[in-house]
Amino acid sequence: MFDKRIFIVVVVLLLLAANVVLLNFSGGYSARVSSLPEQIGLRVAGPIQKAMVTIYRKVEEIWQTYFNLVLTARENKKLKETLAETQARLNRLYELEKSNARLRALLAFKSQTPHAIVAAEVIGKDPHPWFKSVVIDKGTVEGIAPGLPVVMPRGIVGQVIETAVHTSKVILITDQNSSVDGLVQRTRAKGIVKGGPGDLTIFEYVLRKDVIEEGDIIVSSGFDGVYPRGLPIGRVVAIDHTESGMFQTIAVLPFVDFRKLEEVLVILDPLTIPDGGNGS
Q1: How far apart are CA 142 and CA 149, in angstroms?
Q2: Are strands 155-163 and 232-240 parallel, antiparallel or unpaired?
Q3: pLDDT digits (tens, 9 = 90+) for 171-227
Q4: What would the pLDDT profile of 29-57 be if each residue is shown by its tens digit?
Q5: Helix residue ranges per DSSP H, the chain
Q6: pLDDT beyond 80 at 142
Q7: From the CA atom positions of the chain, what is the Rg in Å?
Q8: pLDDT tens-digit map of 78-92
C-alpha cells in the first residue's frame, strides 16, 4: 500500500521542480515586455508559488504550535513541581509554628508551677472504644511512675497507670475508670469527676442543695492525693435536675481537647506543697 506521506512529499517535490523550471523558462530580470511563453509560465508559476507559500506557512504554523505546546507542557510540569515543593515547605513551617506555640505554652506552664515536671510526647492512643488512654515517650528513666498526674496548660489530662523504661501509659479523665476529686471554683461545692460519654466527664456526688450553673468551672480539690489543688478540669455544660435523691448529676466538658493531644506534662512531685501554698 502506497504511503500517503510519501505521496505528499513527491507532490511537493514535483511542484517545486515545476516552479523552478517555469521560473527559469520565464527568463532573467531585465525590464522588458514578457513573451507569450513567459506570460504562460508566470501564469502557471503564480498559483504554484502561492500554493507553496500557503503550504510553507501552514507547516510553519503547525510546527510553531507544536513547539509552543511542548514548551508549555514542560513549563507546566516545572511549575507544578515548584508548587508542590513550596506547599510542602509551607506545611513544614506551619507544623513547626504550631509545635513551637505548644512548646512555648508548656514552657510557660513549667516556669509558673512549683512542681517538678517532665514534658512528654504522645506517641500512641488506645484503639479500644471502651478504654481511653494514650502512650507517652517517657518512662522510668525519666522518673515516671504509676499514679503520677498528667496535665497540660489548659487542664488535667489523666494519670499514669503503667510504665516501662522509655514509655508510659496514661488513662484519660474521660475514661470511665478515671476519677478526680473536684470542686466548683465559684461555690466550692465538691464532687467526683468521672469519665462520661464521648468527650464529656460527669461531676457526681454533688449535693442537690449546692447551687451550680452552666458555665461554672470545675478544678481539682487536691483531696485525692493524685492531682495538686486548683488544676482546671472543665466547664459545666448541663445539669440533670430530673433525678431524685440527695445528689445531682452534672455534665462537664474538659478544657483539654483529647482529639488533638500531642504533648503533655507529667508532674513528678504532686504531693509537694510549696511555701505559701497554691490553693484556689
Answers
A1: 15
A2: unpaired
A3: 999 999 999 999 999 999 999 999 988 889 999 999 988 989 999 999 999 999 899
A4: 455 555 666 556 556 666 766 776 777 67
A5: 4-25, 36-112
A6: yes
A7: 42
A8: 887 787 777 777 776
What proportions of the chain, in percent to the nearest 5, are helix, strand and coil?
Answer: 40, 25, 35
Cell 503533655: give the residue.
Answer: 264
Phi, psi of 116 (to 5 degrees): -75, 130
Q: Which of 225, 213, 211 has the alpha carbon at shortest distance from 181?
A: 225
CA distance 68 to 87: 28
120 CB neighbour count, 10 Å cutoff: 24
Pairing of strands 117-125, 263-267: antiparallel
User: Is the CA virtual torsion 264, 268, 274, 280 positive or negative?
Assistant: positive
**The three grid cell numbers given for residue 13, joined into one nine-digit string:** 517535490
Cell 513541581 locates to 81
Spans of all domains in the chain: 1-24+36-112, 117-267
Write the CB contacts of 113 (distance below 8 Å, at least 6 apart in sequence): 267
Q: At what angle do helices 36-112 and 4-25 cross, to 10 degrees?
A: 130
User: What's the CA gap between 229 and 91, in Å, rounded?
Assistant: 39
Largest CA distance in the chain: 129
Residue 142 C-alpha from the chain's centroid: 31
Cell for 209? 442543695
**CB neighbour burial string for 143-161, b if at least 16 within 10 angstroms, e if fewer:** ebeeebbbbbbebbbbbbb
Residue 261 has pLDDT above 60, yes or no: yes
Q: Which CATH superfamily is domain 117-267 in?
A: Rod shape-determining protein MreC, domain 1 (2.40.10.340)
Mapped onto helix, strand or coil, the DSSP state of residue 181 is strand
What is the Cα–Cα distance from 45 to 101, expressed in whole angstroms?
82
